[in-house]
């Protein structure tokens, strides 16, 4: 029995030494790695023109679709804002070609990009608060930090991967329809959103429902992409979506950012797993 207890004590001493090395050395190594990765992610969002404090450069992207050529155009992205949108729409009923572009004094903020960038900045701030001189006392302290960082990274990723669901009246009242010159026809709605690494444009063509219509009016709820047949009420008029056109363009640096988020989340989880392995040896006291 004494031999077993001695072996257990020696074993625990080794584990305690390994755990202290983990707290004092490996944790900070992982934190440095996380900061380096997230700074790279942050640079993708700022995209400076000249120097780190310069204005975000303008990037042009061509809208395209593999299923339709009804909508074509070029979008100009400047950081988290669309500074220009130049769009051609071929009306399916009569093949009339419509052209509309942002007014020169207008920009459209992409809230998804802005929010994702803010979450990255918050994650970097959390990590920077634990510099090399900081000594972690317990594994629980490390777990708490990792959970806080992972929460910010998950929120950043979700803002890019999960577009907001909007009702058609919300799209109509968003202000986007009033940014174009010439003004959009009354029977058109447009919406921009981010989905993963793509910037998407949806154009809805509408037609009014006559008071004598025998259709059962059912207002549609919120959706990322509404389908033909969706109905809504705007002003004193009831409208129905007749055609939907969706085109998109790939934003390479958004893809980079998503990869950085995934790698960072994996690093955080790996560190949490290592801490948790030791917790099983000290389950009777805080570790």
UniProtKB/TrEMBL annotation:
Main location: cytoplasm
Position of the signal peptide: none
One biological process term in Gene Ontology: gene expression
Cellular component GO terms held in the UniProt record: nuclear envelope; RAVE complex; synaptic vesicle
Cell compartment(s), UniProt: Cytoplasmic vesicle, Secretory vesicle, Synaptic vesicle
Top-rank taxon, per record: Eukaryota
Entries under PANTHER family matching the protein: LEUCINE ZIPPER CONTAINING TRANSCRIPTION FACTOR LZF1, PROTEIN ROGDI HOMOLOG
Entry's family note: Belongs to the rogdi family.
Protein name: Protein rogdi homolog
Organism of this sequence: Monodelphis domestica (Gray short-tailed opossum)
Gene: ROGDI
């Amino acid at each position: 029995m004494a031999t077993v207890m001695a072996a257990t004590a020696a074993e625990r001493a080794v584990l305690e030494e390994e755990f202290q090395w983990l707290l004092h050395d490996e944790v900070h190594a992982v934190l440095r790695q996380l900061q380096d990765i997230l700074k790279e992610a942050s640079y993708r969002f700022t995209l400076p023109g000249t120097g780190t404090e310069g204005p975000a450069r303008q990037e042009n992207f061509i809208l395209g679709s593999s299923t339709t050529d009804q909508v074509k155009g070029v979008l100009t992205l400047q950081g988290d804002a669309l500074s220009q949108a130049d769009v051609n729409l071929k009306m399916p009923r009569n093949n009339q070609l419509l052209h509309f572009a942002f007014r020169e004094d207008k920009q459209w903020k992409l809230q998804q990009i802005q929010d994702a960038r803010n979450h990255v900045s918050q994650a970097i701030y959390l990590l920077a608060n634990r510099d090399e001189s900081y000594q972690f006392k317990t594994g629980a302290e490390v777990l708490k930090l990792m959970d806080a960082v992972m929460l910010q990274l998950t929120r950043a990723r979700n803002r890019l991967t999960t577009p907001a669901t909007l009702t058609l009246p919300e799209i109509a009242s968003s202000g986007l329809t009033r940014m174009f010159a010439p003004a959009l026809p009354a029977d058109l709605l447009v919406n921009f959103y981010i989905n993963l690494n793509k910037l998407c444009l949806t154009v809805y063509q509408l037609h009014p429902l006559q008071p004598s219509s025998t259709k059962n009016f059912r207002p549609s709820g919120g959706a990322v992409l509404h389908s033909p047949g969706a109905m809504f009420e705007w002003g004193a008029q009831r409208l129905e979506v007749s055609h939907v056109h969706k085109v998109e363009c790939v934003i390479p640096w958004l893809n980079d950012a998503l990869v950085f988020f995934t790698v960072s989340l994996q690093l955080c989880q790996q560190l949490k797993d290592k801490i948790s392995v030791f917790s099983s040896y000290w389950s009777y006291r805080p570790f």
